[in-house]
Request: fold
Amino acid sequence: MEGGLPLLTKEKIEAILEARFGDGFKSLRELPSPSQLHDMDRAAERIVRAIEKKERIVVVGDYDVDGVVSTALMEEFFEIVGYPVQSLIPNRFRDGYGISPNIVDRIEADLVVTVDNGITAFEAAERCKARGIDLIITDHHTPAETLPDAFAIVNPKKSECSFAYPEICGAQVAWFLIGALKQRMGIDLKMGRFLDLLALAIVADVMPLISINRPLVQKGLEMLSASRRPAFEAVRAYLGKSRFTAEDIGYGIAPRINSAGRMEDASVALRFLRARNLGEASEGWLALDGLNRKRRRIEAETTQAALEQADPGAPLLVVAGEGWHEGVVGIVASRLVDRFKKPAIVLSIDGERAKGSGRSIGDVDLFGLLEASREVLTGFGGHKMAAGLSLKAGDIEALRERICDHAARLDPSLFLPKENVLGVLPVGEIDWELMEILNRYEPYGEANQRPKFLIKNISVIDANAIGAEKNHMRLLLGDKNFSLQAIQFGFEKMVSPGRNIDVSGTLQVNEFNGRRSIQLLVDKIY
Reply:
């Protein structure tokens, strides 16, 4: 051990990574039957009956990546079977989250199917009932103790549901529904055709990349590299990539798709994913890229204002601002979590109402903390690591007091970030054999973080500021027997050649002009 961190070898690294997969590597052949989800057969039977009777079906989605992908999957399925449906994604600013009485009043339907929302839509369920509309809810968010009065509710987190893998996203629930419909209708449909889209949702919604999620994302990433879907042809062209990792989705693709719902309307993202040709897809990608740049600018301004308010001594941060853009509060909460290493809630005040998002850290159950503070909230929903909430502006201080009181009673070990350094890596262990081992356990993401190593006392041979704004640093590290390329994005302080440093980061393969080399993506220089 060095400073509390183990000294690593290739064998030790492989053993640590293997231990993350307690039930081994799952294969696509081991996926459970859709029928294992409670109410799935009832939901599928009702949808098939609606098709046979030529009833009006409306699909109601959500404005994040998971919700947009869920909607795109349902649209594509109904197109394949040749049945017309209407799909609708609520607007974050006009409609708020998920299906609501206002949404129900706007549609003409015999059957409404929600995807990635609806598990707390009590009023909307009542309105559907009053209008004689059957409501099928498919969702993955944590249910309350009571459930909406719907025709069927498919959610792996329902207490009645014995589905073996509850940590799946909304698009996966929609995909399993498509599987159930395919079986019931007796149609020849390869479920693998949807996996490029599905991988996007699983990664963007921060699902654990273990168990059944791993092979789905693995195959989806493979497909993404060769998918003939115009949207992904455009992605490959504009990002200049042919091979994708889960991190490429998390940092390159998902933020752009999310920006539509955050800044304007999620229909922009849905049109992009459903584009009929490369021209349409390219136009959509450029629109999303523009919205994402706007989002980043507003996010930076809001983050600065939130940092000025944050109380570093509190166990959980609650900050609020009049007129803060609702579309960026979730990202700003993530920035506060990164900075202060504690959960954060960021609220936008609009007159007498406040609405916002929270993000958690480690093993702190944010949804549970909100549930314990529900008497001061007008609404909330989500899961352990991320949640949305609304309340009266006058109750913000009461929320801060209550939720901080509950958070202060938690075991401090729950607040430890999960992406800790794996151990101290001697430079002699860095070779292509190590990269093969690391490659074996991809894709990396939630519950299977890309290993972060500490390299001690390594010499800086060369250092240069790079990028249009000279805000990134390229390094050459090592000695006369060994050299390692390294890059740090958004560096704080330039280092001088000739110095010896301790540095943490992740290893990746860099491909440039047909040449492959091992590169350290620097997290921190000590």
Notes: DSSP finds 16 helices and 16 strands in the chain. The chain has three domains: 37-283, 310-415, 419-525. Residues 160 and 308 are 45 Å apart (CA to CA). The first strand starts at residue 57 and ends at 60.
